[in-house]
Specification:
There is one protein chain. The chain is an alpha+beta fold. It is built from 2 helices and 3 strands, in the order E-H-E-E-H. The protein has a 3-stranded antiparallel β-sheet, with helices on one face. Strand 2 and strand 3 form a beta hairpin. Helix 1 crosses helix 2.
């Protein structure tokens, strides 16, 4: 199991961060997503054999852009 952390500084509200969390949790290979309180960051535990970290980064970026559209 691998772990990565993303800073979502461009996402202003906790509701938006919560929506990103819920969406990314639905991805195959993602085991756990945790919002780090008060920091604007999320931590993601995932299986690198199912989904590479680059794909997670791409999906987070895409979700962040979609929230502001």
């Amino acid at each position: 199991m691998s772990m990565m952390e993303f800073a979502l500084n461009d996402v202003a509200c906790t509701g938006c961060i919560g929506r990103i969390k819920r969406k990314i949790q639905q991805t195959d290979g993602i085991a756990k997503v945790k919002i780090v309180s008060g920091s604007g960051k999320i931590q993601i535990a995932f299986n690198e054999q199912i989904i590479p970290s680059a794909e997670i980064s791409r999906r987070i970026s895409k979700l962040t852009l979609r929230i502001f559209d």
